[in-house]
Amino acid sequence: MIQFYRQLFIISMLLTVLTAAGFSVEKVHAEQLESLYDEQVLVLNQSEGERARAGRQAFERVFRRLTGKQLSGFVSAPPGNVDNYLEQFSYAPSDKFIESNSSGFEELLPAIALNFRFSSEAMGEYARRLGVPLWSANRPTTLVWMVVDRQGSREYLNEEGFGLEYGYIRQQDTLLGLPIIFPLHDLQDELVVSVEQVWDLDQDAIHQASLRYQADSILVVKVAETASGKWLGSWHYYLGGKGFDIGVESESLFGFLEAGIENLSGYLAQRFTVSDTLDHRVQLSVSGVRGFSALVD
Predict the structure, then answer these.
(1) Which class is domain 142-274?
(2) What pLDDT, on a 0 to 100 scale, did the predictor assign at position 34?
């Protein structure tokens, strides 16, 4: 055990020294890396026009997933020929539909799934040209405790009462590459932490209830609908003794969640980006350490 902590201390000091010296640290083992470059877009047909439109949309999604930033903040549009950044694409059947007004009125038409796989080298080079560092593929799992207050009645965000909003948070797994976990909110949870304790940010109770899920980080969100119909609340993120607290106000609950996720992804991208713009690189292989949080001071 003493030897383990000695090794962990040495690794921590090495990372600090390398970062201060301007070196880029490359993780040798990044199991999530491949899926970060995959994206699926629904199309109406297999025409060149539809594929080009879908390719631009997929490019923007993958860029945000890799950097934590919107492409529109750097350029007005994706590259003209997205094919230069692809490894492959393929079509697949889909049971979903797309809204279309090609006939002069809105209608739902059967969709086809168009799957893209982007090149890590090409996307990395594109990000470097823009001066945008890549977000490390090794990302912390996040346990989300979210309480919604409507006219004084408080409840957890759930699929039954908030289907659209709940689904949006769930989608961050694929949209941003954020591994999201929701508590079960079962009897075991209720015996340790109540909705009111989460609302009051009772950190001891929240921490104890979170232990069973073995997540790397915890996100606590509280939001209330005001008398004017706006949504006002706060986001509190904890990872390895650090994190952030922000207040968010929006015209809708969905808008509140979008703004909060934007802040969260920006924070994580800034904290875990890996710069490839430097000439000096160091490969560091870490073994004997279980869990992402063990490497975060």
Answers:
(1) alpha beta
(2) 53
